[in-house]
Amino acid sequence: MSAMIDCICIICGKHHIAPARKVRLGKYKTCSHRCGRLANIVPTEQRFWSKVDRSAGPDACWPWLTGQNRGYGCFTNNGQNLRAHRFAYELTKGPIPDGLDCLHTCNNPPCCNPAHLYAGTALDNSHDTIKAGHWKGNVLPPMPGELNPKAKLTWVQVDEIRSLYATGHHTIAELGRQYGVTRENTWSIVHWYTWQNRPALNLGE
Fold first, then answer.
1. Backbone torsion region of residue 103, taken as left when φ is above 0, otherwise alpha when ψ lies between -120 and 50, otherwise beta
2. pLDDT, tens only, 155-169
3. What are the boundaries of each domain within the chain?
4. Please, which of 84, 118, 127, 179 could form a disulfide with 75 given CB 3.0 to 4.6 Å?
5. Where does residue 30 rank: exposed (0-12), middle (13-18), buried (19+ CB within 10 A)?
């Protein structure tokens, strides 16, 4: 007798038990004959957008109307539980690049409007949250470079320090005095231990 495994219906998202061997053959993607008929009739894209409220217009948030997890919409496709806003992004803009996530400019997790979605880093997401006044933690996330409120330099000055040091005519101590930072900080800058990458988002914009 074939082993039975737990499956997720690609139409309604319900769990159902099916033979493992037949699941591997691509069968039992739905939990019932009714869902099976719907799977053959309704294209995935049409099924997805039927669960999104787009009535407020192209510039407004488009909230997900069905199941959510931690505020984010959940969409089931081919047996996988996906975040609805990520699926909306990939439907309209293509795959999310490796190492990036799908973020909201509106800071509204259920929103699936592609105009409110962009691919960015976790740091970008934290900065968006801070700008919107939604940060709830007592400690702010890491803020490299000019984003750090304690920063004494700008990116332009950092580039100047590195360029001057590269000429061989200036010592680290001299550059530190010239730009008003400690010798240790200047050493970290010229050896690229700090101020390594310009952030994708500037909170001053």
1. beta
2. 889 999 999 999 989
3. 1-42, 44-120, 145-190
4. 84
5. buried
